């Protein structure tokens, strides 16, 4: 084992990983150089504090930051109605801020039309996180994608949380196309996160489990409002450490909403607040180029089963269905065998594969040969 000192990392632990994956490097902070981070920050987003250079009061900027709006793009993605709810914000002030952000956005190709070729170039920033299973990676064409929301749903014991735990480790493993590895944020709504699960998974990838745990920022959410507040702090954290965090996990997205909103009379309010949370999650993924991984619960619906060839239906309704970029349906097989199916995606073929849950996380079934 070789210990290296870097300007941005207290310790970089380099180990030779197993022969099925790349070399494992656990970073206390990041493997970027300082210049790389400054360049990435400049390309990725413009700080909302730039508004002060254009006549916006410091107190108004602070109000934006308190609301989880830390970038110029974040202001543009926010409605006038929401901005008017901020302290001392009126129509004239919102119009002024929106106009400034529009001009700054046009200068940096944030809020104007671009060619599809330019979009293709921008998507070169997208990275994919290995799931720990080559089979699962194959149907996802590489793994869990950044700048997107990946949702997995299924009944209990189908491997949703186990995939989340595995991703906590694999997100810190350097990957293809220069992916350096990074930190993880884990919002736990069901009290299912177990740090002791991280050690055997880290051992599988020959990583220092203590360093891996230090790179996972964990929070327990107790109700749907608290869950939204935590997302606000996540946005602030990603802004403070640009390029450092690579993965946001919410396990599970619907659990607290099903408790806080009961009955048909509260369904409209539930879906409205769920929509805000999903939109905020998508906004974070695009602003800071991170992968968002959601687990979801299911319900039984006979009509849905007849139309979709699935025995269960993911909860969350059309709000969640239209917001998730890729949806994976999980079901049980024999023993520790699980089956994953691409249920919905804009670019992936609908297909399924098998994986197993092991002490070292998600893996491929052993060949019978």
Polypeptide structure, described:
This protein is α/β, with parallel strands linked by helices and 369 residues long. The protein contains 15 helices and 16 strands. The protein has helices spanning 34-44, 58-66, 72-76, 80-83, 91-107, 116-122, 134-139, 160-170, 195-204, 209-214, 224-240, 255-260, 267-288, 302-308, 317-323, and strands at residues 2-6, 9-15, 24-27, 128-129, 144-145, 148-153, 183-188, 216-220, 245-251, 291-296, 298-299, 313-314, 326-332, 337-344, 352-358, 361-363. A hairpin with an 8-residue loop joins strand 2 (9-15) and strand 3. Helix 8 crosses helix 9 and helix 13 packs parallel to helix 15. The protein is globular and about 70 Å long. The model is unreliable at 1-43 (pLDDT under 50).
Q: Taking strands numbered 1, 2, ... along the chain, how are they ordered across the largest sheet? A: 8-7-9-10-6-13-14-15-16
The rounded distance between the terminal residues' Cα atoms is: 35 Å
Which overall shape is indicated by the principal axes computed on the Cα atoms? globular
Alpha-beta classification: alpha/beta
> How many helices does DSSP assign?
15
The total count of strands amounts to: 16
Cα Rg? 21 Å
Uncertain residue segments = 1-43
Instruction: Summarize the biggest pleated sheet.
Output: 9 strands, mixed
Which band does the percent of strand residues land in?
15-25%
Summarize model confidence as the mean pLDDT: 84
Percent helix: 25-40%
């Amino acid at each position: 084992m070789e210990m290296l000192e870097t300007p941005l990392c207290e310790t970089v632990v380099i180990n030779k990983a197993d022969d099925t994956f790349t070399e494992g490097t656990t970073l206390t902070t990041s493997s970027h150089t300082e210049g790389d981070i400054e360049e990435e920050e400049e390309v990725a987003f413009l700080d909302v504090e730039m508004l002060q250079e254009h006549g916006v009061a410091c107190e108004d900027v602070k109000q934006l930051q308190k609301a989880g709006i830390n970038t110029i793009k974040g202001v543009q993605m926010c409605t006038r109605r929401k901005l008017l709810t901020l302290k001392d914000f009126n129509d004239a002030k919102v119009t002024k801020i929106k106009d400034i952000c529009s001009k700054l956005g046009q200068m940096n190709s944030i809020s104007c039309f671009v060619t599809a070729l330019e979009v293709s170039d921008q998507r070169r920033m997208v990275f994919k996180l290995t799931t720990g299973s080559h089979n699962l990676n194959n149907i996802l064409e590489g793994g869990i994608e950044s700048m997107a929301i990946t949702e997995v749903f299924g009944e209990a014991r189908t491997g949703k949380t186990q995939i989340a735990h595995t991703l906590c480790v694999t997100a810190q493993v350097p990957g293809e196309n220069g992916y350096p590895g990074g930190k993880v944020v884990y919002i736990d709504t069901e009290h299912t996160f177990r740090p002791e699960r991280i050690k055997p998974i880290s051992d599988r990838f020959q990583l220092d489990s203590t360093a891996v745990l230090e790179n996972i920022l964990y929070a327990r959410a107790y109700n749907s409002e608290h869950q939204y507040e935590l997302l606000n702090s996540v946005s602030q954290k990603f802004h403070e450490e640009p390029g450092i965090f690579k993965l946001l996990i919410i396990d599970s997205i619907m659990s607290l909403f099903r408790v806080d909103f009961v009955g048909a009379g509260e369904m409209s309010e539930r879906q409205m607040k769920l929509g805000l949370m999903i939109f905020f999650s998508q906004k974070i993924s695009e602003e800071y180029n991170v992968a968002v991984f959601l687990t979801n619960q299911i319900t039984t619906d006979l009509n849905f089963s007849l139309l979709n060839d699935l025995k269960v239906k993911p909860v969350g309704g059309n709000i969640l269905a239209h917001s998730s970029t890729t949806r994976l349906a999980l079901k049980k097989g024999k023993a520790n065998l699980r089956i994953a199916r691409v249920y919905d995606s804009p670019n992936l073929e609908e297909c399924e594969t098998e994986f197993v849950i092991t002490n070292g996380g998600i893996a491929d079934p052993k060949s019978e040969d």
